[in-house]
Amino acid sequence: MSLENVISRAIVSTFTQKMLSYLEVDTAIVGGGPSALVAARYLAEAGVKVAIFERKLAPGGGTWGGGMLFNEVVVQDDALPILDDFGIRHAPLADAPGYHTLDSVEMASGLIFGAVKAGAKIFNSVSVEDIVFKDKKVNGLVINWTPVERLGMHVDPLTVIAECVLDGTGHPSEIMHLATEKAKITLDTPTGKIEGERPMWVESGEESTVKNTREYYPGLFACGMSANNVMGGYRMGPIFGGMLMSGKKAAGLILKSLKK
Ligand code: 48H
Questions:
Q1: 8: CA distance to ligand 1 center in Å?
Q2: What is the pTM of this model?
Q3: pLDDT tens profile 71-85
Q4: Is 190:223 a contact under the CB 8 Å cutoff?
Q5: Which of 79, 81, 117, 240 has the highest CB neighbour count under 10 A?
Q6: Domain limits at 42?
């Protein structure tokens, strides 16, 4: 066999095996932003079969660009143990005790590597276009290649079955929108619907991101900015401690739910 074919066969067969073994998972995570990557790592470490489906070619979500493309971000003391778990370096801010800066490229790449090394599988360039909703339960995801979505090609999707679904889609809360608008699910929020993100208030946004990380319908969880949008929390700009802690909290809640 020519080396050209050896390479092509190797890629087609290993990817096919990987995809086949992840068509049924314990937890399917939509979006590969910081909160989702943290959740995936702690879930995988606890032995949960977990896959992330990320629309973009590069996972990492909004971490890469820091603040306004200045590639540094800020975290608070509370989030340092998570960064340390991932081996991501940070430096204290001399003029703001309790706060630290870190390189956003090291954070993005470190979170991705940490999640993958722990055993989470990441499917990139895959967009989640719908949910599986059976017997009033969220049962999984409907996926398609991002280029298919972007080009508007009329190509039917495939499905992934999951015990739990985590919406880590960031500001748009795409899965929660599908749940409320297509599946007509009533969420565990004051109105039963998505409350909508509020403007900038860093302290409040950081706190509420973690608080709002919850199960909003049996089997359907939200983390990060998605959780904040669902519950009407404030935004916080390029401080990421809340996102990291939200991911860790989501992993704990999902673990508890899977053990039931
Ligand atoms: C597949 C999808 C789909 C889909 C979206 O926004 P993210 O970085 O996620 P979080 O919530 O962990 O982090 C938020 C943070 O980056 C941020 O925006 C902050 C702190 N903002 C503060 C402020 O004031 O603005 O990542 C979400 C990921 C992205 O990579 C999307 O491509 C992906 O989800 N995604 N993937 N199928 N339907 N929708």
A1: 33
A2: 0.98
A3: 999 999 999 999 999
A4: no
A5: 240
A6: 20-64+120-259
CB 40 within 8 A of CB 50: yes
The closest-lying atom of ligand 1 relative to the alpha carbon of residue 33 is 26
DSSP secondary structure letters along 195-257: ---EEE-HHHHHHHHHHT-EEEETTEEE-HHHHHHHHTPEE--SB-HHHHHHHHHHHHHHHHH
Distance 192 CA to ligand 1 centre (A): 23
How many folded domains does the chain comprise? 1
The alpha carbon of 170 and the centre of ligand 1 are apart by a number of angstroms equal to 3
In percent, how much of the chain has pLDDT > 70?
A: 100
Query: Is residue 42 a part of any domain in this protein?
Result: yes
- The answer to whether residue 100 sits within a structural domain is no
Cα 14 to middle of ligand 1, angstroms:
28
CB of 242 sitting under 6 A from ligand 1:
no
Residue 76, ligand 1, Cβ within 6 A? no
- CATH assignment of the domain containing 134: 3.50.50.60
Give the pLDDT confidence score for residue 26 in this predicted structure: 98
Residue 76 lies in a domain: no
pLDDT confidence bin for 160, thresholds 50/70/90: very high
Residue 27 lies in a domain: yes
